[in-house]
Amino acid sequence: MNRSKWKNVKDELFANGLGVAALLTLIVFTLGAVFAFLSGYDPNAMEAMARLKPPGAGHWFGTDDYGRDYLARALYGGRISLLVGFASMIVATGIGATIGVISGYFGGWLDNLLMRMLDVIMSIPSFLILLLLSVYLKPSVGNLIIIIALLMWMNVARVVRAETMTIKEREYVLYAKASGQSASGIIWRHILPGLVPVIIVGATNNIASAIMMESSLSFLGFGVQPPNATWGSMLNSAQGYIAQAPYLALFPGLLILLTVLSFNVLGDILRVGFEPKLMRR
Amino acid sequence: MRQLIVRRLLQTLPMLFFVSVVCFTMIKLAPGDPVLSFVTPNMHADDIERIRHNLGLDKPAYIQYFIWIKEMAQGNFGYSLVNHQPVLGQILERLPATAGLMGSAIALAVLLSIPLGLIAGANRNRWADKLINFISYVGISIPLFWLAILLMYLFAIKLHLLPSMGMRTIGVESAADVLKHGILPCSVLAFGFLAGYVRYIRSSTIGQLKEEYVQIQYAFGSKKSTILFRHVLKHVLLPVITLLGMSMGDLVAGAIVTETVFSWPGIGSLGMTAVKGMDYPLIMGITLFSSLMLIFGNLVADILYSFVDPRIQLKG
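Output (structure tokens, whole complex):
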């Protein structure tokens, strides 16, 4: 990992407006989630007189079927959605990178075993497993993070393994080996730094899919439980009021779309920036 | 070729084993004693033990597993806890609706993605490419259930053009009616994986355009569109087969969500009802069924691919 790669990423980011827009979107959403209390409303406070108010002054996003301020709910919901996305990404990337490095570095039967295992896990439709696990485990934020992470680490493991296999043939690694360094030392000092780009790209894409998984699960009613909301569960309740209050469905969906879109765009920019040999889009 | 198929078949064995163990474990872990559903108030404790024995529940877990597998192989997937109907029967009853939805969605996605991908690849970095690229970005980022709600709002509630729910109008028995109900779910499902196909076809088009045969065609004075749709198309089509195999998983996830939103009476919505009602045998049946579909879908795609392109040697 050297400075020129980061410079490439920066150039790539500013070369197209989409990248800057994505970055800004994510910064705004994260700030919104962190400072959600500034909306001035309690996201779970019901107000019978103010049911299903369309967006306007006072309630920028309107109010929902219980008279709760929709902007506040969206901000607090974003907190959970982003937290789940970020945390599952960390866990999944950790598992994936560890297994990938071990598999790629040691090779042989261990590699064979791990990769066959991975194939097998990938052969079950992951979303179905997600549903199943959420039936067995109590749907809490912690469980949600673990479940989603357990279904996402495989892609990172694959790319990390492939990258490790090329890096371990480089001369400086061979030299380190010949000079008698321990395997863990070589991995830590010489291989891991080279893996940073693929891990960052994989992690970015993982956040996008984690947020998508969380929202699908919450939409189906198996995510975080009421009265707490996430963007997905807000869409679930909005479904019943689609004719009277379409804005209830509009906002959370738009937030999911923009967040996932931004992470996907950034993931691509990072990938192209780190690998200038790759064809420019 | 035969060797290849045999090897590929052998590879699916551990997958099948794993899937079946997962399903079996989950049934075992399910809360509640299955014997209780047979117990009546005036039963003696001995009777209850006899039922347990008859159900084979007093045997060790691995024996129960083999019995379970044997039953599965004979088509006995168990009975629903809710309506006591055979699980397999219920799944098969819903299969046509799901197969129809998935099949038409795949067809739609392939038909749209080929021209879009070719055009994008041939006009790399020009406005057409950028537009298609942006659409496919949105395509991979949009939550399908949200798209479903939006389309439902627009076409069913605002414009009254299409029905929003179910597969048939009550009392109407016509193919046209089913088609009309299917337009929205099919479009939503297709959009879900259209984007991935477009990106794939675009990049393989870019690769193909660098090949020698394209240069030769240019030298012969062929038009760009002729080269694209007559020559490049052929080479780009092949990998689409493997793509189909790979998208089976997304297809299952997409079908669950889409069928739920549109109340489409398929396996996906059956699964949702089963999960909500904690109907464990039905949940397991559906998991097993869709995993089998996934595994064999991939298998067929791989074998098919090696038939059309014998250069491909499947690696172990």
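Chain B touches chain A through 48 residues (CB under 8 Å).
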